[in-house]
Amino acid sequence: MSTLIDLDAVEATAELQTLPQFIGGEMVESDGDDVIDTVNPYSGKVWARVSNATATDVDRAVVAARAAFDGGWGQSTGHTRATIMRRLAVLLSENAEHLARVESNDNGKLVRETLAVAQNLPRWFNYYAGSAERMFGSSVPVANPNYLVYTLREPIGVVAAVVPWNAPLMLFTMKVAPALAAGCTLVVKTSEQTSASALEFAKLAAEAGLPAGVLNIITGTGQTTGRALVGHRGVDKVSFTGSTRAGVQVMKDAAENIAPVTLELGGKSANIVFADSDLDAAANGVVASVFAAAGQMCIAGSRLLVERPILDALVDKVVERAGSIKQGDPFDPASEMGPLATAEQLERVLGMLDNARADGATLRCGGRRSQGAGVDDGYFIEPTVFTDVSQDMQIAREEIFGPVLGVYPFDTEEQAIAMANDTEYGLAGGVWTNDLARGHRMARAVRAGTVWLNSYRVTDPAVPFGGMGASGMGRENGDEAVDAYTETKAVWVELSGETRDPFKMG
């Protein structure tokens, strides 16, 4: 087993490392020669390469996963799986700082955030270790007293999991932990831009005693590697996180093999602030919802709906705080916002900013690529706030995935609901009010999989997460996630010993 990546050694040499794939419990080279550069978003420099896995690589990984499933993991006890998962949780805790550094180097997130995520990962594996030990079936009363009927929950089989670049380890864990608890094996396709932290995770999983082939990690693009994996006939279940457009293609490819899918897709979430709310708390929540992680979150609160009497006061607070956000080196503790993860995303967001100005939105702050010492080489965009945004503008309709906020005034609760729900997405939303009854009414009325009241961007392994409409289907986290990786089997036991009429049902 390879040792963990030494980032200091990587920085000290000009020689680029090609990261391997993890198949059948081993770090292996790709069957093909095509490689993809991995760029540090802060420096703009290539620091490693990954293989663009071929169909042969994909097949090898799926075969390894199937062999591990049939070879014992699929029939293992919950206690066995839980023991390994708890050992893995300990190793993750011990290596949290290293994993955080690798991820910040790979996708540009602040190390203060990647470290907090890495330190939280053990919670997911400890929580789902408990789930592995409590996968209960049920006894079902039926009309015919001659039968005892009970159900079993069995692992669905080989899972194809596809994770994006914006929060690699967290989104990876949200798929891997419940799938392992259920007794499934996995082939994970990482983003070609951010594969390093998942490969480091695989080494720790092997050290924890996870049998060879239970977890396999392949690298490559969505169009080649991803589609070959999702459409593979040996895959029993697909779990995908990414854009809505890509999710539609995943559904089509998985449908060829009748493989069920869980899709966590895009969002266009609204923060709704009423005049009776705590303005300082609301402003802080708005900043957290759209400027943290440089806005590269599916749950980003990129729409701010404000009751008109407090419109100017709240916007002034948000603009003031946005203008003071310190951008810089993700490894500098003083930095508050890092770069976007890729050059392609930078260009896309800059284009949307140009369109917003052309459409007539009023720029209150930001709106450009960041300039100055410490940011010139990276993919930085200034924290941006637009007012006078209409519902038909591009920045009002499309997911931005950058630090860009649009502001919309409203006058009544009913108007706020209509505006919040005027989107094809339905992933998340926030409501800020000190009126308890109104808060509960709004939580029911906003069409989204998660609604936070007087908070934003909080998660826990026990709480289901997912969206409605164009934001996807199915849920991650909570007991629902384990359910998604299992099949229910009904068992009928004849108790009387009587001979039945073979031509009469029941």
TrEMBL record:
Superkingdom of source: Bacteria
Active site residues according to the UniProt entry: 264
Task: Give coiled-coil spans as residue ranges.
Answer: none
Fetch the Pfam families from UniProt: Aldedh (PF00171)
UniProt cross-references to InterPro entries, sorted A to Z: Ald_DH/histidinol_DH, Ald_DH_C, Ald_DH_CS_CYS, Ald_DH_CS_GLU, Ald_DH_N, Aldehyde_DH_dom
Q: Where is the Aldehyde dehydrogenase domain?
A: 28-491
Cite the entry's keywords alphabetically: Oxidoreductase
Alphabetically, the GO molecular function entries are:
oxidoreductase activity, acting on the aldehyde or oxo group of donors, NAD or NADP as acceptor
Similarity-based family: Belongs to the aldehyde dehydrogenase family.
Annotated protein name in UniProt:
Aldehyde dehydrogenase (NAD+)
Tell me which species this is from. Answer: Williamsia limnetica
